[in-house]
């Protein structure tokens, strides 16, 4: 039996077409109740007659039927095993899928878990529960009617069983009760479950706000008004980004404005949370102001008291510079177009009584969240997850609810979990479907494999990697050939041989996109059998590779290039240091040593040529943390050592990527996956240009080559680290390099600014980057080694894939940095050190200090709370003066470094100035403190002498 639905649809050219859709109705759909004798069981049901739902509202056992709003708002409650024997109507399931795919996936996981006893009833195809739409009926009203019809049918179908309808829709509940359907809100139901404290904590607080409170924020405009005003150009749309340094400041990038729109104070931010899509009203130009340049932290301890924030707003207003040249477009948030709330990791602030507590997120860009919990005593020692439910305008903070505890604060395992969750890193165990795609052991190379590949097992190939590396995806060789030429090969693990398109392992790798490296943990993109074994080019083992081989002369000119799949046997897996020692030891004359020496000579030529073309040499604070192998606690922190061999490997990986990019673009002009580094807008370089100007250097930014030349010239013999800091500042001016599909941009936009090359891709790390796997597949088709498939040649599919790759790569970088930061904090616990550092930025109330030894950037506050400052801030010269001492950006300083753990969530370094000496502000060096608790005459004389030398240097600038 079937019925038909017809509707009118407008096509692309403007014609109206009538569509008729058949809707089949059946009489053999199983109700799912195990005690039912009237249904012919044609499918399995997870519902159980043994399970008893314990709710004191009822004296009898019962089955639960859920409304759509309960699933959308209360999925965290449903994930708990207290609620079982639940019937999910197909009408509800469809609506959940349409409105929230993440929640739909969560619900699907619950339904598939047999211990939870959830059952999907196909109500809209059952002859007794199907309803036709009424003319003019709203879709929401129609769905509600279908849900109530299904509830009534269950009650009449099985009169001996009991069914309860749970909904937070007041009108739907009222109509259900009128139709004799037992119906309750989720809050009422949960409150009557025994031992329900955990469930009550998980209840969404959307409707639990005191609507009679005094407004703290302006009201938001309605969605309709927002969209109309944006369409008319009155308002502007963009993504809100909160400042990490000032909780009362934020920015929105909008089209038509070169600089981001500056937002300040409560009325400017107006309940926007980092990542939200907001509508902003831009002020008239005479109301535009400068960023404050001040560091402000939210130190409030009460959930609703606004005295503290009002005081901070006064400080903010007084701190805004009056420099007209520095003003930015300024505005305020007038509405939220789309919330981008997620789950947040953090801790309880503590110090408050009762069920209402403040939650402090790990991410400094997220405001504190007001939650209701009955387990505060337990949670005080825990890192846990909270989600935001609402932010009423009368509330100082958004309202949210507890989701789950992660573990004890400060433990390595818990902190790693926080890092992964905060950066949205997929890190669950690989599923059985994925693992079933792996080759069976023992894996051997067959005769058929040899016939399809070039056999390079007789060549002296070696890999050069960091110590402890197990996912070795590249190896090199260099050997003399006829005519005095050199054959140079880059051999990359052939991961695409094991990961076939469309398989479970391929889909998982595409989702993860990249391997994530934490200090003491690695989250693999592919299972370990591939990453550390079959695809790892380990010394002395035969492996499949994809080879890029050049014929070169001794001046590193490429005479010929070829690509092919190969079989290799690496002679040795070396570290950078081992390779360097081999090159430097002139007594070693074997073929492997000669190969490395030739590679190193060619690499130096390639690098010199790249730099002459305008490639940038940038800098960052990369450190290595040495861990205790048993306790996994940090033993020491040191700057990563760099050898010539680091550069040698880098040059040949760059050359291989460039060569492959040229090949795949030639054969796939519309769908090649390439990597571009956009030229930064001139405004990005303002901090670098100003810093150079204050130091007497002219930093030219009109081209990458001029920037590189300017940075090379910006040196100071008295401060050898100055050039490194300028390069670090230049790094921060750059835009992110991104993947893209070749057919989506003009060729001029393919350019890689940092490398100064017109064409680039990623080919050399397929074990840890999914982009490289796609490039391998394209190259394999070009070489005739493999066949193509539809998605590989689909420009739109490639573009969608690139968006995920770019996001995942960015998050992986941030996660790695966060892991390093946590372990550095762990290393410094209980320590008190005097360290050499440099002023990186001058702020109105603080100095940003860089400590190169540990790669640390920390803040030295110049004003103690409740005291008057002895410093004078010179905005024009970006300096701070106290007496005869003047501090500029990049000046060397000595600071006392101590970790303040009083705020467990946001542990921070507290700095004190040691040198230069400023009476009443600086502290004695630790060694002098150990000699005497009071400074003696000899020490005082030495300090005055040091101070005189420092002030003399500063005056000479």
Automatic annotation (TrEMBL):
<dbReference type="Pfam" id="PF17216">
    <property type="entry name" value="Rrp44_CSD1"/>
</dbReference>
<keyword id="KW-0963">Cytoplasm</keyword>
<feature type="domain" description="PIN">
    <location>
        <begin position="62"/>
        <end position="174"/>
    </location>
</feature>
<keyword id="KW-0460">Magnesium</keyword>
<dbReference type="GO" id="GO:0000175">
    <property type="term" value="F:3'-5'-RNA exonuclease activity"/>
</dbReference>
<dbReference type="Pfam" id="PF00773">
    <property type="entry name" value="RNB"/>
</dbReference>
<keyword id="KW-0378">Hydrolase</keyword>
<dbReference type="InterPro" id="IPR012340">
    <property type="entry name" value="NA-bd_OB-fold"/>
</dbReference>
<dbReference type="GO" id="GO:0003723">
    <property type="term" value="F:RNA binding"/>
</dbReference>
<dbReference type="InterPro" id="IPR033770">
    <property type="entry name" value="RRP44_S1"/>
</dbReference>
<keyword id="KW-0271">Exosome</keyword>
<comment type="similarity">
    <text>Belongs to the RNR ribonuclease family.</text>
</comment>
<dbReference type="Pfam" id="PF17849">
    <property type="entry name" value="OB_Dis3"/>
</dbReference>
<feature type="domain" description="RNB">
    <location>
        <begin position="453"/>
        <end position="785"/>
    </location>
</feature>
<dbReference type="Pfam" id="PF13638">
    <property type="entry name" value="PIN_4"/>
</dbReference>
<protein>
    <recommendedName>
        <fullName>Exosome complex exonuclease RRP44</fullName>
    </recommendedName>
</protein>
<keyword id="KW-0694">RNA-binding</keyword>
<dbReference type="GO" id="GO:0000177">
    <property type="term" value="C:cytoplasmic exosome (RNase complex)"/>
</dbReference>
<dbReference type="InterPro" id="IPR002716">
    <property type="entry name" value="PIN_dom"/>
</dbReference>
<keyword id="KW-0698">rRNA processing</keyword>
<dbReference type="InterPro" id="IPR022966">
    <property type="entry name" value="RNase_II/R_CS"/>
</dbReference>
<dbReference type="InterPro" id="IPR050180">
    <property type="entry name" value="RNR_Ribonuclease"/>
</dbReference>
<dbReference type="Pfam" id="PF17215">
    <property type="entry name" value="Rrp44_S1"/>
</dbReference>
<dbReference type="InterPro" id="IPR001900">
    <property type="entry name" value="RNase_II/R"/>
</dbReference>
<dbReference type="GO" id="GO:0000176">
    <property type="term" value="C:nuclear exosome (RNase complex)"/>
</dbReference>
<dbReference type="InterPro" id="IPR029060">
    <property type="entry name" value="PIN-like_dom_sf"/>
</dbReference>
<keyword id="KW-0269">Exonuclease</keyword>
<dbReference type="GO" id="GO:0006364">
    <property type="term" value="P:rRNA processing"/>
</dbReference>
<keyword id="KW-0539">Nucleus</keyword>
<dbReference type="GO" id="GO:0004519">
    <property type="term" value="F:endonuclease activity"/>
</dbReference>
<dbReference type="InterPro" id="IPR033771">
    <property type="entry name" value="Rrp44_CSD1"/>
</dbReference>
<keyword id="KW-0540">Nuclease</keyword>
<feature type="compositionally biased region" description="Basic and acidic residues">
    <location>
        <begin position="939"/>
        <end position="949"/>
    </location>
</feature>
<feature type="region of interest" description="Disordered">
    <location>
        <begin position="932"/>
        <end position="957"/>
    </location>
</feature>
<dbReference type="GO" id="GO:0071031">
    <property type="term" value="P:nuclear mRNA surveillance of mRNA 3'-end processing"/>
</dbReference>
<dbReference type="InterPro" id="IPR041505">
    <property type="entry name" value="Dis3_CSD2"/>
</dbReference>
<dbReference type="GO" id="GO:0016075">
    <property type="term" value="P:rRNA catabolic process"/>
</dbReference>
<dbReference type="GO" id="GO:0019899">
    <property type="term" value="F:enzyme binding"/>
</dbReference>
């Amino acid at each position: 039996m079937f019925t038909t639905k017809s509707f009118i649809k407008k096509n692309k050219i403007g014609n109206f077409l009538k569509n008729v859709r058949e809707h089949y109705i059946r009489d053999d759909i199983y109700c799912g109740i195990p005690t039912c004798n009237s249904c012919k069981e044609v499918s399995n049901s997870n519902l159980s007659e043994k399970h008893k739902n314990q709710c004191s509202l009822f004296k009898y056992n019962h089955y639960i039927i859920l409304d759509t709003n309960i699933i959308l708002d209360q999925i965290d409650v449903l994930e708990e095993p207290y609620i079982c024997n639940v019937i999910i109507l197909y009408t509800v399931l469809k609506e959940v899928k349409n409105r929230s795919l993440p929640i739909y996936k969560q619900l699907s996981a619950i339904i598939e878990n047999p211990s939870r006893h959830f059952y999907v009833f196909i109500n809209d195809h059952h002859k007794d529960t199907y309803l036709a739409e009424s003319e003019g009926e709203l879709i929401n009203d129609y769905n509600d009617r279908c849900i109530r019809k299904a509830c009534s049918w269950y009650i009449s179908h099985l009169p001996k069983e009991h069914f309860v309808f749970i909904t937070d829709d007041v009108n739907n509940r009222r109509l259900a009760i009128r139709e004799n359907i037992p119906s309750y809100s989720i809050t009422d139901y949960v409150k009557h479950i025994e031992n329900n404290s955990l469930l009550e904590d998980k209840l969404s607080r959307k409707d639990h706000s005191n609507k009679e409170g005094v407004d703290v924020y302006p009201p938001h405009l309605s969605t309709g008004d927002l969209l109309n005003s944006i369409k008319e150009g009155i308002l502007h749309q963009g993504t809100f980004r909160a400042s990490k340094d000032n909780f009362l400041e934020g920015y929105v990038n909008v089209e038509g404005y070169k600089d981001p729109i500056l937002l300040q104070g409560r009325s400017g931010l107006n309940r926007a949370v980092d990542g939200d899509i907001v509508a902003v009203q831009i002020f008239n130009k005479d109301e535009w102001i400068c960023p404050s340049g001040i560091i402000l932290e939210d130190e409030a301890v009460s959930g609703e008291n606004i005295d503290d924030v009002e005081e901070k707003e006064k400080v903010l207003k007084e701190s805004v510079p009056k420099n007209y040249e520095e003003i930015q477009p300024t505005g305020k948030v007038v509405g939220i177009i789309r919330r981008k709330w997620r789950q947040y990791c953090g801790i309880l602030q503590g110090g408050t009584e009762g069920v209402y507590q403040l939650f402090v997120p790990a991410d400094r860009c997220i405001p504190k969240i007001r939650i209701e919990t009955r387990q505060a005593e337990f949670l005080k020692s825990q890192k846990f997850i909270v989600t935001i439910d609402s932010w009423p305008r009368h509330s100082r903070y958004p309202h949210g609810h507890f989701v789950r505890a992660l573990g004890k604060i400060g433990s390595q395992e818990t902190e790693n979990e926080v890092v992964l969750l905060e950066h949205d890193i997929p890190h669950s165990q690989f599923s059985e479907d994925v693992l079933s795609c792996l080759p069976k052991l023992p894996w051997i190379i067959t005769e058929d494999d040899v016939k399809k590949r070039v056999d390079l097992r007789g060549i002296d190939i070696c890999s050069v990697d960091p110590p402890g590396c197990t996912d070795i995806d590249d190896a090199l060789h260099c050997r003399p050939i006829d005519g005095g030429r050199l054959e140079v090969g880059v051999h990359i693990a052939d991961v695409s041989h094991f990961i076939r398109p469309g398989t479970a392992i391929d889909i998982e790798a595409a989702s993860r996109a990249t391997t994530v490296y934490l200090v003491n943990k690695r989250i693999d993109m592919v299972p370990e059998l591939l990453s550390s074994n079959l695809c790892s080019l380990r010394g002395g083992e035969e492996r499949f590779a994809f080879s890029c081989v050049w014929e070169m002369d001794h001046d590193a000119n490429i005479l010929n290039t070829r690509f092919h799949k190969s079989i290799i046997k690496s002679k040795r897996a070396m570290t950078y240091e081992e390779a360097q020692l081999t090159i430097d030891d002139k007594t070693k004359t074997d073929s492997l040593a000669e190969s490395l020496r030739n590679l190193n000579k060619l690499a130096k030529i390639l690098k010199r040529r790249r730099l002459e073309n305008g490639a940038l040499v940038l800098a960052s604070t990369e450190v290595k943390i040495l861990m205790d192998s048993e306790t996994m606690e940090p033993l020491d922190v040191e700057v990563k050592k760099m050898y010539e061999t680091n550069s040698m490997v880098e040059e040949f990986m760059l050359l291989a990527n460039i060569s492959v990019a040229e090949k795949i673009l030639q054969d796939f002009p519309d769908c090649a996956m390439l990597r571009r580094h956009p030229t930064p807008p001139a405004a990005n370089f303002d901090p670098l240009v100003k810093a150079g100007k204050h130091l007497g250097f002219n930093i030219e930014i009109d081209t990458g080559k001029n920037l590189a030349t300017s940075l090379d010239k910006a040196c100071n013999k008295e401060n050898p680290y100055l050039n490194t800091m300028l390069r670090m500042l230049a790094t921060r001016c750059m835009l992110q390099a991104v993947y893209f599909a070749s057919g989506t941009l003009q060729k001029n936009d393919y350019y890689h600014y940092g490398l100064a090359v017109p064409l680039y891709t990623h080919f050399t790390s397929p074990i840890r980057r999914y982009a490289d796997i796609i490039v391998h597949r394209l190259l394999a088709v070009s070489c005739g080694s493999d066949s193509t498939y539809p998605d590989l040649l689909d420009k739109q599919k490639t573009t969608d894939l690139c968006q995920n790759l770019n996001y995942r790569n960015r998050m992986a970088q941030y996660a790695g940095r966060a892991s390093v930061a946590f372990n550095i904090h762990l290393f410094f616990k209980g320590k008190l050190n005097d360290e050499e550092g440099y002023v990186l930025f001058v702020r109105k109330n603080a100095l940003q200090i860089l400590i190169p030894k540990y790669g640390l950037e920390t803040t030295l506050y110049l004003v103690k709370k409740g005291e008057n400052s002895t410093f004078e801030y010179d905005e024009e010269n970006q300096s701070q003066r106290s007496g005869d001492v003047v501090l500029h950006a990049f000046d060397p300083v000595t600071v006392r470094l101590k970790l303040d753990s009083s705020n467990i969530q946001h542990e921070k370094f507290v700095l004190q100035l040691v040198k230069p000496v400023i009476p009443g502000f600086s502290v004695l060096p630790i060694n002098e403190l150990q000699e005497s608790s009071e400074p003696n005459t000899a020490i005082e004389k030495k300090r005055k002498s040091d101070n005189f030398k420092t002030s003399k240097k500063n005056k000479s600038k």
